[in-house]
Amino acid sequence: MPGRSDIDLLIAAAHGSGKIARRYWRREPRIWDKGGGAGPVTEADLAVNDYLIDRLLKARPDYGWLSEESEDGPARLDAEHCFVVDPIDGTRAFIDGQPGYSHSLAVLRGDRVVAGVVYLPEMGLTYAATEDGPAKLNGEVIAASETDLADADILMSKAALKPEHWKGGTPPEFTRSFRPSLAWRLCLVAEGRFDATMSLRPAWEWDIAAGSLIAARAGCTVSNMHGRAMRFNSRAAQVPGLIIAGPKLHGQITERMALAPGVGSSRP
């Protein structure tokens, strides 16, 4: 089936991306500002993107294409399958010489993720999942944690702690942590190193497509910030925020949040 055969292609392409990125990491790559608040891009981002276009679309020429570093177009909306990639997720960390950047690669069928890989080359971490198999880290099955909000360690920005986002003010119980790559945050929750991740800001599909599948197959409830199922390959290429955690903790978070009127899960 497409998801099963595509996963090997994604893993190989992610590892190839890592080899290219490492040629530039900590070697002062050229940097540009995208403008409009979109942040920086480096020559490494563009080199990896060119490699992925060549590697993936040569292998699957009938697939659509959505990448942070490619001009978007309407053709992907009509494609049965679509690649969704972030050549380097965590570009600022990459520029700073931090190892916590990743390559995020996914395949969609319609509006659902059917295969996903997140690879951190400096750490030797390969997260992968298909729609009908377990989530894995370096070939070993991983699973999300089971905990309560009072004991949770949640990956989130400081902005999400503002009291207006929570019923009765910010819950004092949990611990807040942060990692630079959004794709990696989803995977850290999938492997149980952290208990949840959330964002109240719109998230680009290329940042979260692969990680959302990996988290779901690890047992997480995966939703947008309103507690509703995520759907991909939208015209805007964005998801309205995210909440990802084990089912019990996800319910507790959405119950406490002022922006979450209901709970819905996505389990691709």
Question: Could you walk me through the main structural features you see in this protein, from its secondary elements to its overall organization?
Answer:
- The chain is of the alpha+beta class.
- It folds into 2 domains: 2-141, Fructose-1,6-Bisphosphatase, Chain A, domain 1 (2-Layer Sandwich), CATH 3.30.540.10; 149-256, D-Maltodextrin-Binding Protein, domain 2 (3-Layer(aba) Sandwich).
- Helix content is 28%, strand content 25%.
- The protein has 6 helices and 16 strands.
- The chain has helices spanning 2-22, 43-59, 91-95, 182-190, 205-217, 247-256; strands spanning 31-33, 40-42, 64-67, 81-89, 102-109, 112-120, 125-130, 136-137, 140-141, 153-155, 175-177, 196-199, 203-204, 221-223, 238-239, 242-245.
- The chain has a 7-stranded mixed beta sheet, sandwiched between helices. The chain has a 5-stranded mixed beta sheet with strand order 11-10-12-16-14, with helices on both faces. Strands 1-2 form a two-stranded antiparallel ribbon.
- A hairpin with a 4-residue loop joins strand 6 (112-120) and strand 7 (125-130).
- Helix 1 packs antiparallel against helix 2 and helix 4 packs parallel to helix 5.
- The chain is globular.
- The model is unreliable at 260-268 (pLDDT under 50).
